[in-house]
Structure formats: C-alpha cells, structure tokens
Specification:
Elements (H helix, E strand, L loop, with lengths): L2 H28 L5 E5 L6 H17 L3 E5 L6 H8 L7 E6 H5 L1 H4 L6 H4 E10 L2 E5 L7 H10 L5 E4 L2 H14 L4 E4 L3 H10 L4 E4 L4 H5 L3 E6 L26 E8 L4 H16 L1 H9 L3 E2 L4 H22 L5
Parallel strand pairs: 1-2, 1-3, 6-7, 6-8
Antiparallel strand pairs: 3-10, 4-10, 4-11, 5-8, 5-9
Helix pairs in contact: 2-11
Length: 324
Amino acid sequence: MTRFTTLVRRRIALLALGAALLPSGAGAQDYPAKPIRMVVPFAPGGTTDVLARIVAEKLQQVLKQPVVVDSKPGANGMLGGDTVAKAAPDGYTILLTVASAQTLNPSLYKMPYDPLKDLAPISQVINATVLMVVNSSVPVKTVQEFVELAKAQPGKLNYAYGTSGLQLFVETFKAATGTDIVAVPYKGTAPQLSAVLSGEVAMTMDPFTAIPHIKTGRLRPLAVMSANRFPSLPDVPSITEAGYPGVELNSWLALYAPGATPKPIIKTLHEAIVKIVAMPDVRERLLSLNYVPVGGTPEQLMRLSVEETAKWAKVVKDTGFKID
C-alpha cells in the first residue's frame, strides 16, 4: 500500500467521522426546524393541560415553529413521561408535567424510567398550590365543620384524586385531623373535579380549576392549602388560618426533554420559557389561575427534583403510604 493510498484512506475515515458527528451538532445549531410535540401526561382539561396550552401558544410564537399539545394520560403520569424519556433526544418531543410525577412516583411505583436520569430538566414553569373544595350539597362551610362531619360519619364521606401526590396529601390531611374519608381514584385532575361537580364524591383538592364553579355556586371552597390566602380568593382562609398549620401543599409544573438532549437545545427551550413567563399577558393569566410564574434554570430544577424526591421518599417511608 502506497503512502498516498494510506493518506487517502485516513482522510476518508476522518470525513466519515465528521459526517457521523454532524447531524447532532447541526441539529442543535438549526433547532427548531420542524414542529415540536409537547406531551402532557394527564387528561385534557386538567391543570397541566391548561398550562400546556398557554405555554404551547407562546412557545410557538417565540420559536417560530408549531407546538402541538399531545395528551397521554395514564399510570399517574408515567405513560407520558415514559414516552418522552424514550423519545429521540432532539428537542422535538418535550414533557410538561407535575412535581409528583417526577418526585413522588419513584417512591410509589416500579417505574419504566428514571426521572432524574432519563429526563433532562428545562425549566420550572410555575409554582402552585391547591384548594380544598366540596360539592355545594355538602352541609359544611369551613374545614372544621367538614372535619366534624367526617368524624360523625366515619367511612361515609369520600374524596376524588387524580394523582398520587394529591392522594398522599389528602391522606396526610386525614392523619392530621383524625378523619376516615374514602379515596376514589380518577385519571387526572379534570375527571376528579367533574366527580365533585356531579356529586359522585364530596370533596377534592383542586389546583384552582374549580374557581369558575365556585363563582357559580356549584362548589364551595373551604381553604387554600397553603400558609397564606390568595389574592384572587380573599375570603377563603388558608389551611393554617383554618387551624391546621403544617398541612400545606406547594407544588410546581415543569418542562423536561429526553435525557440525552444536547445542551444547546435545552438552552434554547429554557430561554424561550423565560421570555414567555415574563410576558405581561401570560403573567396575568397565570396569576389569575393562582400560579406563580418561575422560569427557573435547568440546574435549579434538577436540584429541586433531587431534594423533593428525597423528601417524598422519607414521607412515604414514615407514613407507610401505599397506593390503593
């Protein structure tokens, strides 16, 4: 073999290696070049779906590409999460999900993916809490009255839950109040709210999608499950004011990509979210839903996920909580 032939073969090998590496780099540089699929792992009409449609509309404007919301409810958020975890890491399939699906599920289920390894954090979009609401036919107006009714009728009252996080939270409330309230599962926060509206169940903890029904009188709010009242519901006491300090729930919703997604793509998506949550019309809409806009960094979201995964693991262990 001549020296010339050897040099040619080496050059071809280098070109082949460069070609193999090019799609990843070029893809990140040109991103986005086609429509983006935003997977929502809960039922349409629920809290996550409402936020997803707000974000998708603005993300489409910022990135100049269509953003399609794809609802994949099931397995307490794991079906949609698994779909994204196993998707191509090219930024064209992303996940908008709730805190419990990321940080509580690992303590409750044998998951088909690892949320901390198989999903790359993009940004915490909002902070949130929940409302304790009852059907208007339930003869109570305060948390204390509800507790007294539940104690007078152990095992008679029931509550709806659409996520394991909400179930664990209500079970914590039951333990703190010494009440026996029956859990009834639903596939997401929208169906759980419908169940309370129809009178199938007495109570639920709702992430503020109940507000329109409170205004019409179909539902009655008993408390905001946080330490302080919310400006949009000034007459509704916090759970602390209601006499149960320590029984608060602060949640969040965040955006993720498949775990191996290149950092330049993550950066593009994060910067887009920061722009979106800073838009006056978006902030007004989020605050009206009692969401606090965040737009945190990927690093902040990773730290939050790690900390809360450890926190929930301890709560589950200490309470002996198990899925029904």
